[in-house]
Specification:
By secondary structure, the chain is mainly alpha-helical. Helix 3 packs across helix 4, helix 4 packs antiparallel against helix 6 and helix 8 packs across helix 9. The radius of gyration is 23 Å and the shape is flat. The termini are far apart.
Length: about 250
């Protein structure tokens, strides 16, 4: 009989002490508190995590990278002949699918060898594009995975629109290349990522001008524009009227 290992994630509710007793491997799920990444049950205890939620601390969830999933598989295969993998997190299911797409050892090893030994730029690009195609097919085969990635990015934008936002930063959150995230975002929403961010910020600025007495310079900072002149220019380009005129008249062109 094969020696079988069991792997799940920390959303299963299994604590590290219990996992050790049962011989189960638990992959910790990452989450953001402010700009810092924590891992459930590793950097922060469950009680501390829930205490922060009760206090209203800004917490957003993320998912482990496919590499982290594969690393745990490889470590377990040193001890076990096969693995039963039970992802309790829907996000982790997406990471698992991507990891599976990348884990074709023979083809992947062959591609890596070619990449390191090739001296022809076109050949290198062919190898890179080939593996991007493999990754893309893993997303297309499960549209829900693509949807989760985009919803995670949109949720982060909605919660952090007052801060600096860039494609690289957002792509890092969902473990994608910036160009690939931009492509997925356009397919999912019909909008460019940068335009979506601007639209959300402009609508929030409009709300603040309508519903509060905040100074325009403060609204500018609140909506992610540290330069008030650039904010006014962007507002005028978007709505066809300056922030002050909109506040005075309560309407846009």
């Amino acid at each position: 009989m094969k020696k079988t290992g069991i792997m799940t994630d920390s959303h299963s509710g299994i604590l590290s002490e219990e996992a050790q007793r049962l011989g189960i491997k638990v992959l910790p799920m990452p989450f953001y508190i402010g700009e810092k990444v924590y891992r459930e049950g590793v950097d922060l205890s469950r009680d501390e995590f829930y205490d922060m939620l009760r206090k209203g601390v800004d917490v957003s969830t993320s998912q482990p990278s496919p590499t982290e999933v594969m690393d745990m598989w490889k470590e377990m295969l040193k001890e076990y002949e096969e693995i039963v993998y039970i992802p309790l997190s829907s996000a982790l299911s997406g990471s698992c699918m991507t990891a599976e797409a990348m884990a074709n050892e023979d083809e992947f090893a062959s591609q890596i060898d070619k990449l390191y030994t090739s001296e022809d730029f076109n050949c290198i690009m062919d190898i890179v594009n080939h593996n991007i195609d493999i990754l893309e097919k893993s997303f297309i085969s499960n549209p829900l995975t693509m949807h989760r990635e985009i919803e995670t990015v949109k949720e982060y934008i909605h919660n952090h629109y007052s801060e600096e936002l860039g494609a690289q930063q957002l792509a890092d959150m969902v473990y994608l290349a910036p160009s690939y995230l931009s492509s997925l975002f356009k397919k999912e929403t019909g909008q460019n990522l940068s335009k979506y961010i601007k639209q959300y910020r402009m609508e929030k600025a409009k709300e603040l001008l309508t519903d509060t007495n905040m100074k325009i310079v403060n609204i500018s900072e609140k909506t992610g524009y540290p330069n008030v002149s650039y904010f006014c220019q962007s507002f005028r380009e978007y709505f066809g009227v300056s922030p002050q005129k909109f506040r005075d008249k309560g309407e846009v062109l």
